[in-house]
Amino acid sequence: MSASSEGVAPRGGIMSAETAEQPEVLRRILTEGAPRIRAVAAEIAARSPRFVLLTARGTSDNAALYAKYLVEVLLGKPAGLTSMSTTTAYGAEPDLTDCLVITVSQSGGSPDLVASTEAARKAGAITLAVTNNADSPLAAVSEFHIDVLAGPEKALPATKTYTAELLSLYLLVEGLRGGDGAAASELPELAAGILARRAEVAEIAQRYRFAQRLVITSRGYGYPTAREAALKIMETSYIPAHPFSGADLLHGPLAMIDNVSPVIAVVPDGRAGEALQPVLERLRGRGADLMVVGQADQVERASAGFALPAGVPEEVQPILEILPLQLLAYEITMARGLDPDAPRALAKVTETH
Amino acid sequence: MSASSEGVAPRGGIMSAETAEQPEVLRRILTEGAPRIRAVAAEIAARSPRFVLLTARGTSDNAALYAKYLVEVLLGKPAGLTSMSTTTAYGAEPDLTDCLVITVSQSGGSPDLVASTEAARKAGAITLAVTNNADSPLAAVSEFHIDVLAGPEKALPATKTYTAELLSLYLLVEGLRGGDGAAASELPELAAGILARRAEVAEIAQRYRFAQRLVITSRGYGYPTAREAALKIMETSYIPAHPFSGADLLHGPLAMIDNVSPVIAVVPDGRAGEALQPVLERLRGRGADLMVVGQADQVERASAGFALPAGVPEEVQPILEILPLQLLAYEITMARGLDPDAPRALAKVTETH
Predict the structure, then answer these.
(1) B207-239 pLDDT, tens per residue?
(2) Domain region containing A292
(3) pTM, whole model, 2 decimals?
(4) Which residues of A are less than 8 Å from B278 in CB distance?
């Protein structure tokens, strides 16, 4: 019997299947998940938190950064990302009255996240866990819990749990401000349309097969996408991929960009895209090889690109933007003869303390 | 007449001179600057801010991250780093009552920092500018101002203004909590001792002369040092240098580390150093080439290293840790035949919007 007839997935088969599940997961969150998220949001809103702190690591930290933008822009409340070691290494005990602490984790199992959330609750915070595991230690120690309903994720690189976290966090913030989350309704269908264009991405991946390094840039709502794309590429293909907000890129790192340094720019359709224009000009001026994911007219001006559908509200574009970049990480990795399902040196539940 | 007899600095001469000024700048802050910082801190403490937000870009953003650790650990208040585009691109108007917004900038001239600070003040925040230019637009729009007293900085890579910002922010947080800042008193002398060991660093720099990339890691108070070292190396030598907190490194990027990927670890003497041990074990297990800056016994176990003086309180170690790494950036750049004073593509005042 061959391996495949025993049900063993071919190289990359698990990541590929989980990536393809995303439209279905998004649909599940919008139907089954949304009422529960709205209920949690209403209970939290009634407690009138003044500040929001977000705690996470890895892929979930990029989802947390997206939520930070939502909280600041849509909800109009100050927000920060937790430096976890202040609690776990230094035993800091800040007064967290009036603070909402949101901990985001696929597994809900990392000991430092659990310890940090327990400390936050003791310090007076409203605690909310956003995880893919309702039975996790993190869900247990948090006052509130949102299940992102992505189903078991078996590939080491997180894909469907990332977009599930993004959508759940978007619906949460909408709930907190009394919005209806309508901007998300078309996402499952749009996601399916993007994932059907795998052949376009496979073609682009050939450009990066021998790349020594990549720079990925964006701004605003697109910046978490740049960070997550970089992480995905690093952990699967092992190509060092360095994410920068466009503004930070101009404060120093621009010096290292030249005509052999490929740059991927995530150009949202909206204000972040406009704010990114001077950065794109400077990159073109430095002779950078530029691939654009996003706005169609910017794709046309670049060396390569993947155009995203127009007319999607900017605050939910990140849920679509990452899809071609997940496919890109996969395709580059396959082209290099590696297995994206099981990168060397990694475990699915990372036990950091 | 030769160029040098006309007073034109030789290649790297400006950065080299400014790096060497640091003990003197630190001394100036402790004597002339401290009383003014204490007075500002007392006025702010009387207003009882509950939440601290830090706004900055580039090198100053790394100083802001250091301040975030100080605020959380020493002051026991929640803190966050501002995502500036939420104001400048999206027009977010969060309620900032009870918030202290600290904007850190060498020049005090970047338009986005000025706009963001003006918006914060309008939104009810207590605003404090920490700059090297008392006559700057940023100082003008802020309610409070601290001058970091570093004197004019002419090299493009910031060196003395970074450590001046760190020490000023340390004294500010000490003032806010009613501490005496005594941990800083030995820093000028210790800094002079470290900077006198340039020959050691020049020797180490030979290892990286042909490096294609670097990973720099640390945790806790040492993490801002890792970020600033990476920025310094990128903007002078053009070697892509990727900073990771030790915990984040285990969540994915560890896969790209192998025995041809040099890693620099900043190992503080204290709790962050302890928390970093499992990360160092994993790196050694992956066969990484490891250089250590910090704890002497960890330096001995590494492929190369630079031992820092023992017995310095952990919260002020970052003011010393960066010094050998500034020298390293300079020495690598000189060895590669480039000019650290004037990296390609950069301007001293970065006009991001």
Answers:
(1) 999 898 899 999 999 999 999 999 999 999 999
(2) 197-335
(3) 0.94
(4) 353
